[in-house]
Amino acid sequence: MSGRLVHNSVSDDVTLTVTSTAGSYVATNMQNKQPSMKWRSTTDAAQTISGDFGAAEVIGCVVLYNHNISAAGTVAVTLASNSGFSTDVYTKTVDALDATLGYGTQKYGHDGYGGYSELGWQQRFTIIWFTPVSRRYFKVVITDTTNSDEYVEVGRMMWGDFTNIPYRYGAELGWREQTEVTRTRGGALRSDARNPYRYTNVESTILTDAQVADALEIFRAAGRRSDVLWSGFPENTDEYLERRYTMLGKLMDYSSSIREAEGSSITFSIEEGL
Question: What is the pTM of this model?
Answer without folding.
Answer: 0.86
